[in-house]
Amino acid sequence: MTPRAPGGRLLVLRALGLGDLLTGVPALRALRRGMPGAQITLAAPAPLGFLARATGAVDDVLPSEGLAPLPPAGPVDVAVNLHGRGPQSHRLLGTLRPGRLLAFACAEAGHAGGPEWDPGEHEVARWCRLASAYGLDADPEDLDLAAPAAPSPAPGAAVVHPGAAFPARRWPADRFAAVAAALRDGGERVVVTGGPAETALARRVVELAGLDERADLSGRTRLPDLAALVAGARLVVCGDTGVAHLATAFRTPSVLLFGPTPPARWGPPDRAEHRVLWAGRRGDPHGRRPHPGLLEISAGQAVEAAGLALTRNR
Q1: Which of 16, 245, 262, 281 has the least CB density, counted as fewest CB within 10 Å?
Q2: Mind listing the pLDDT tens digit for each residue in 253-278?
């Protein structure tokens, strides 16, 4: 039965990162379509608020981080767990005393009404399946976002993003530099991005590639600027990161380097503009060293994939 809440309050927990938000977009839109009269609040990190609202599925954002106690949220008619399998996330939503919980089954949390968790499922498909189990119409292809109104800090650039949350997913800087140099030599305007903690890595890529120091945009692009940059880019080259999901959302051609986590879990949809490189070796995505499978991908392979991806943007 569709859990309609006309005029009621629906709170969705997905207090994770950029890629997590973007892979959850089809499920969020399914909630919006199925409960058009509800006030939908997303519990997520505050910096993601503008993208959450850009989905057209979220009315407001409750600033939240991970499994930290939720700020006061007021009455909640329906709580939706798009955060995890439980029990911690189920119990966190239980503190709101919602009228109903939509979530995966979790005996430890006393919730038996949802579908069973599948650890091998693609992240997009997982949350669409949860929505479908509650009678909501979810489309895993419904990932697109409209380009931001803000201007790109480097229109038409090839974006190289060498960072990743964990070392296991970080391709070596010298290989990113080789790709950046090849793109530059091929006539592309190349910029290198990274968060505030990745400025040293980005600077090294710029220096090794022989790029002008103005190509280094690391630490200087807030998320709205980064979104505008990716939306207006000719190409994105990066690892298994949130930036990869921005490329998917804006249908920007991309070369994506996967290491310990298979693209069948977190990769883009099967579209010609995205080129995925993976050696077929799984491992710990939170490892403290680059995964051996990631190191099997050569700079030459990435350069070749970049050329193919760019043909989609001519």
Answers
A1: 281
A2: 999 999 999 999 999 999 999 999 99
